[in-house]
Specification:
Largest sheet of chain A: 2 strands, antiparallel
Distance between the termini of chain A: 23 Å
Number of helices of chain A: 15
Order of helices and strands of chain A: HHHHEEHHHHHHHHHHH
Oligomer: homodimer
CATH superfamily of chain A: Farnesyl Diphosphate Synthase
Number of domains of chain A: 1
CATH class of chain A: Mainly Alpha
Largest interface: A-B, 60 and 58 residues
Shape of chain A: globular
Helix content of chain A: over 70%
């Protein structure tokens, strides 16, 4: 890519990141209006975690993929907010003292610090259920077949064969020494599965049959892996202020990561190759896939 | 009801409770086969909580309601296992040290005692996702409209306006003095919403339109309330060995309950009236509703 194109790319992405952040915040604000009863702290905790933070990469991926198939933007936004609700719930629970014991997230105190542990557990649980409530609503798609497929895939991506299973392996990584194949599988479950869902959701909303999704799925798998490698690099090289959370945690916990297994240089090179490969999977799509291409580059180049 | 009928009633219920317990255990056993990787402890924890315990009242309610509409028994069982997965996840999280801090459940050590807190949080999360995976599978019902409605109603019943919201109010009850109306609303959210889902699920699976479900919904609301009043009576009068969990906890925590607000005698009378009222809502159904009637009486008379 030449320099001018790179600038245009960065401009496009900055604009899109701003737009999706505003849209996701507005929808969470609407969905999480606190009731005038003793549940108010639950809603406040959900708002604390869900509103005003994060890159909103997952909703942006849904939006970008949905655009390829001329999906109604409101439907794509609802699907994006659903997956973000799952992501946010997982952050709340992962930050708990019994899990990663983190005090800062997205530059703010974590939920169990700002509120308390019980409220944090419940806020996570409530966001988890809300994700499926959003997807099962006819507003997300008029065709119940589409809604059921979105739900089936998200439940799989979030459950014991996806995110929750990956998190369990991640906890085990403190006591066991994993090889590169196992770390790759762990990370695909822990973060890759949800990222794959985002891209596939765009195709599901656009009623693209299974066999028409191969390129997008390959794209998603590659950027998911690149995302995690860059995360590991940030954990080693970043600073807490930029990252918005504690860094250096994996090494402190004695966990094998892409960086510990491959070294910094090879890990960075691998992330670069995965990004190029991801973009090559979009070859059959024209300019309308530029946002997906820009997201892939952004994932590689981000520092938080 | 005369004495002979009461005996027949108890016999019917005993048989049905045995059958549903075996069927639910068998399906969880199949769904939760532990993989040969570092996720094994997660699956073991899910199995510990989900298999071999509990009255399986929720799956039995789904089965009993589904029978009124000649629903395929396998579909009803899948829906029953889904709601039981939600119920079990809520027990795991409620028992955590930061929540009710219970060491015993269903006569066994709670998950965070038998495993650890992190595994307990994840096992709950994984069961939560699994419930929606089960419901979104075409095996649960061939019609995606039916699946989407089951999911929408279950997500609502489990989320911030249902179970999670009720649990939040229940935590607040330790610091605030609630009146009878607020305790009733709290309990309807905390346990009633899920019980209502079970009965309604039978009707949804049977494609009964909304307006045809009024009697069943009224039945479900009444038995849900009776269930909670009896729970409060067991907490005051029962012993831990029979209950399979700690008793006397509400009074120790200074929480208002139906019993603290109404007294033992009036609470017992109220549960009896609700049970009769629940049964009267089934008047338009014939003998095929006998199991629902027997469940209502069982809820009133149980001591654990």
């Amino acid at each position: 890519m030449n320099e001018l194109a790179a600038v245009a790319d960065a401009d496009l992405l900055e604009e899109e990141l701003g737009a999706i952040a505003a849209d996701v915040d507005a929808m969470f604000d609407r969905l999480l209006e606190a009731p005038a009863d003793a549940r108010a702290p639950l809603f406040e905790a959900m708002r604390h975690a869900a509103i005003g933070g994060g890159k909103r990469l997952r909703p942006l991926l849904v939006r970008a993929a949905a655009r390829l198939f001329a999906v109604d933007p409101d439907c794509a936004l609802r699907a994006g907010v659903a997956v973000e609700a799952i992501h946010v719930y997982s952050l709340i629970h992962d930050d708990l003292p019994a899990m990663d014991d983190d005090a800062m997230r997205r530059g703010k105190p974590t939920v169990h610090i700002a509120f308390d542990e019980a409220t944090a557990i419940l806020a996570g649980d409530a966001l988890h259920a809300m994700a499926f409530e959003i997807l099962s609503d006819p507003d997300t798609h008029a065709d119940p077949f589409v809604r059921a497929e979105l739900i089936a895939e998200l439940a799989r991506a979030a459950g014991p064969s996806g995110m929750a299973g990956g998190q369990m392996m991640d906890l085990a990584a403190e006591h066991q020494s994993f090889d590169l194949a196992t770390v790759t599988r762990l990370q695909h479950m822990k973060t890759g599965a949800l990222i794959c869902w985002c891209v596939e959701a765009g195709a599901i909303l656009g009623r693209v049959p299974h066999e028409g999704r191969a390129g997008l799925r390959a794209y998603a798998r590659d950027i998911g892996l690149a995302f995690q490698i860059v995360d590991d690099l940030i954990d080693v090289e970043g600073d807490a202020a930029t990252a918005g959370k504690a860094v250096g945690k994996d090494a402190d916990a004695g966990k094998e990561t892409f960086v510990s297994l491959m070294g910094v240089e090879r890990a960075r090179e691998q992330a670069r190759i995965l990004t190029e490969q991801a973009i090559s999977h979009l070859a059959s799509h024209g300019r309308e896939a530029d946002l997906l291409r820009a997201i892939a580059r952004y994932i590689l180049e981000r520092n938080h």
